[in-house]
Structures are given as C-alpha cells and as structure tokens.
C-alpha cells in the first residue's frame, strides 16, 4: 500500500481513532524506514478539517456539484459590476451555509458536536473551495489537516493545509457511515438533513441561474465594448488626420508670413524709389520750363 492510499484510509477514520491507527500502521511498517517516517509525519486533522473531510467522503457528488458551481462562478464573475458581485457573494454564502449545515449533521451522526466557531471554519473552507481553484483541489482530496480561508484576492496556502503534497489532484474515496443512519435520512419531510439539502439545492439552482444570467450579460457587454472600441479607433484615426492637416497648415502659414514680410520690405523699397523718381522728374520738368 502506498503512503497516499494509507493516508486516504487514515483521514477517513473517526477523529479520535486517527492517532492510534497511524501509530499502529507505522509500527507495522517497521521494515520500511522511509514509510514509517512518512506515516509518523502525518498530522492529525483539526476538528474543522475532519468535518470537511467527512463531508467530502460521505457526500462526494454534492461536493463535486458545489465545486463545479464554484468554477463556473469564478469564470462568470469577470467583468461583473459591484451590484452583480454583491449578489454573487450572497449566493455563495447561501450555498456554503446550507452545505455547512449538512456537514454538521454528518458530524452529529458520528457523535461529534460542531460548535459555531468550528462551523465558521468549515464554511470558510467551503468558501475557499468556491473562490480558489487550488483550494478546491485541496478540499476534494479529503486529506485536509486544517481549515482554509481566503478573502478572494489573497493566495491560499493549500500546501500547508493538506497531509501530503500528492493530495492536490487526488480525490478522496467515498465512505459510508460507521453507524447506519435511518434509511430515508435525507428525504423524510421536516428532517433537518432534508431541510439542509433543500436549502443547498435551492442555493445551487440560484447560483446556476446567476451564472447563466451573468454569461448572457457578459456577452452583451463584450459586444457593446467591441463596437465602442471600433468607434474609438475610427475617431482617433480622424483626429490624427486632422492634427496632421493642422500641422501642415500651420507650417504653410509660417512660410506665408515669412514671404509676406519680405514682400512688404520690397514694397517699401519700391515706394521709396518711386517717390525719388517722381521728385527727380518734377525737378527736371521745372528746369525745362525755366528755359522757355
């Protein structure tokens, strides 16, 4: 049996059975020093991590649906405005709250009481799996040793939250309850588990509807943006052409001003020469007239 297979079995055990069973397996593997050391290094999960691991193993299909919706929502949220993002956050909270209730019910079936503080850690871990792809991988492994938390913009340290590096990309083996639950536990009218499941299904349906709406609005927004981009490029091209033409006209105006200045100087010289010629002519005429 490989270390990953052994870990898969160990993290499926009741929380108080983890340490003695881990130590027993390490003792049984005494002929393989490397395996013994690796088994002893496996950390006991926190209560919140154990509850999430339990949920992943008992409700594998439900968890896969939640993570699939998370992936779709991550893709759809690009380009959303503030109001749409707030609505999306509300839908995520509804979904994680409902699934957290389901996890608490599973823990109760195992005789484990989940306090509000631990439930908050469970919900934070589910939220991290919705908003972060690596956190989703860690959650799916069923090998969490501590809870996850993210603001949606920070990087989730998933490596420190799983028992083994190989956990990322691994899917936990589904298990059944050690203590058999009532046959119709999840469908008896009025049952808490059924109510939680209904809430989760409603939240899931709401999230799927939001994804479809967001995708439609995103396509519309992209088309509008593409048209405006084309119009903007056209107008910018026209502006550049007008600027080029204006620069040419300004250059010609400067040349014309220089030529005008020279022409005015020539005109002044011609007027001066003309005046002198008129004076000389008048003087000559006067001298001629005097001879007569």
Structure description:
With 292 residues, this protein is mostly helical. It has one domain. It contains 9 helices and no strands. The chain has helices at 3-10, 18-28, 33-40, 47-58, 60-76, 82-109, 116-131, 133-141, 192-291. The longest helix has 100 residues, at 192-291. The N and C termini lie far apart (148 Å). The model is unreliable at 178-191 (pLDDT under 50).
Properties at a glance:
9 helices, 0% strand, mainly alpha, 72% helix, rod-shaped, 292 residues, single chain
Give the SSE map.
Layout: H1 3-10, H2 18-28, H3 33-40, H4 47-58, H5 60-76, H6 82-109, H7 116-131, H8 133-141, H9 192-291
Please trace the helix and strand order, writing H or E for each element. HHHHHHHHH
Largest sheet: none
**What's the number of structural domains?**
1
Low-pLDDT stretches are: 178-191
Outline:
The protein is mostly helical. It has helices at 3-10, 18-28, 33-40, 47-58, 60-76, 82-109, 116-131, 133-141, 192-291.
């Amino acid at each position: 049996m490989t270390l990953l297979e052994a870990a898969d079995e160990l993290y499926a055990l009741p929380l108080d059975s983890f340490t003695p069973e881990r130590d027993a397996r390490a003792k049984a593997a005494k002929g393989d020093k490397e395996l013994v050391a690796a088994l002893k290094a496996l950390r006991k999960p926190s209560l919140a991590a154990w509850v999430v691991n339990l949920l992943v193993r008992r409700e594998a299909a439900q968890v896969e649906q939640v993570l699939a919706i998370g992936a779709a929502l991550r893709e759809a949220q690009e380009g959303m405005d503030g109001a749409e993002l707030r609505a999306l956050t509300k839908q995520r909270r509804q979904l994680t709250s409902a699934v957290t209730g389901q996890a608490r019910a599973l823990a109760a079936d195992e005789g484990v009481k989940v306090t509000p503080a631990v439930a908050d850690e469970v919900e934070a871990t589910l939220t991290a799996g919705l908003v972060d792809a690596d956190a989703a991988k860690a959650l799916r492994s069923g090998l969490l040793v501590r809870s996850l938390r993210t603001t949606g913009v920070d990087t989730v340290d998933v490596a420190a939250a799983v028992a083994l590096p190989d956990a990322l990309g691994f899917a936990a083996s589904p298990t059944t309850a050690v203590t058999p639950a009532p046959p119709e536990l999840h469908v008896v009218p009025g049952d808490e588990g059924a109510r939680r499941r209904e809430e989760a299904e409603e939240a899931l349906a709401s999230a799927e509807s939001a994804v479809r709406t967001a995708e439609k609005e995103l396509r519309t927004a992209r088309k509008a943006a593409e048209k405006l981009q084309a119009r903007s490029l056209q107008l910018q091209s026209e502006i550049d052409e007008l600027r080029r033409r204006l620069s040419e006209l300004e250059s010609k105006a400067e040349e014309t001003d220089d030529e005008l200045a020279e022409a005015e100087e020539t005109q002044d010289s011609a007027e001066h020469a003309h005046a002198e010629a008129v004076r000389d002519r008048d003087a000559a005429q006067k001298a001629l007239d005097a001879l007569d």
